[in-house]
Amino acid sequence: MALPKRIIKETERLVAEPVPGINAVPHEDNLRYFDVTIHGPTQSPYEGGIFRLELFLPEDYPMTPPKIRFLTKIYHPNIDKLGRICLDVLKGNWSPALQIRTILLSIQALLGAPNPDDPLANDVAQRWKEDEKAAIETARAWTVTHAKV
Amino acid sequence: MASYEDEHNVKPPSARPPRPRIDFSEFFSALPTATTSSSTTTDPPLNGSAASNLFTTLAAAYQPNLDSNPTATLALIIEQLLSSATSHEPVDGVPDGFLDALDRVPKSKLKAEDECPICGERFLDDQFPLVVRLGCRGRHVFDLECIAPWLKIRSTCPMDREGLVKKREVVVVGEEEEEEFDENYG
């Protein structure tokens, strides 16, 4: 099936006007599949890390949200060990007026503001609530181990 | 007569043990009950709990296979199916006729720079734009072609997430009350 114009436009804009700290490049052989990197926000335990993600635009995009997963290991209460992300706009709060760009910005914001009250990684969220300082330290250590190029 | 293998000069396939088949029968038998909740032929809405049960049934179908042949992929499939079952958002589209009743925006009212928030195309790039305005407070406008598939699964405006159906339900209730009122007089 031909690639919808919207996907072509979004891709062109991602390349022409990239979002600071975010990079998304489609695969040559599958233009619905993107290699993504997100720089950890400053002032967060992920600062200095570069996190790799995969992003796939399903057949019915933009009626359904993109499928996104962290490939780089990350210690975060809303990201589980398989890299899946707990984020409202990726689920029930998706809207076809949102874009790849806006979703990636939301994920970057999630790194800056973990939400242990809406966890996906239960053990991490638990630790985050019990001992936030130690959890942030672990997140920082994981960033150094897994997300440094 | 020469066998297929002789003609193509290949070795016959070695007899491999048959792969364990996944038993989907329970899943497929559950399928119709979930999809025919509405008798209309156009996109019967899959109600949330039925869809959720389907995910669970499908996960259960894979489970014996995982027990006999544990692989990471299979474990992932099962885990995702189960998470789909629990985190499934029910389909909540607009009723039939809603799309036809939307306000049309005439071409003369469209500005050159106006574009559809869903496809990102300027309305006037189309020689015959078919543009509709939603009943949300922002009165947001979309190509009918773009907004229609969305409204069939969610009855909210994509721009402000305002629900679009409640107001209409109120109107319908009002009409029904009126009818009953008339009957009292008759």
What does this structure look like?
The complex is a heterodimer of chains A (149) and B (186). Chain A has 149 residues and is of the alpha+beta class. Chain A is 33% helix and 15% strand. Chain A is built from four helices and four strands, in the order αββββααα. Chain A has a four-stranded antiparallel sheet with strand order 1-2-3-4. Chain A is globular and about 50 Å long. The termini of chain A are far apart. In chain A, 32% of the residues are buried. Chain B is mainly alpha-helical and 186 residues long. Among the domains of chain B are: 21-31 and 47-89, no CATH class; 96-152, no CATH class. Chain B has helices at 4-7, 25-35, 48-68, 72-86, 144-153, 166-185, and strands spanning 103-105, 131-133, 141-143. In chain B, 12% of the residues are buried. The chains are: A alpha+beta (149), B mainly alpha (186). At the A-B interface, helix 1 of A face helix 5 of B. Chain A: GO terms for molecular function: ATP binding; ubiquitin conjugating enzyme activity.
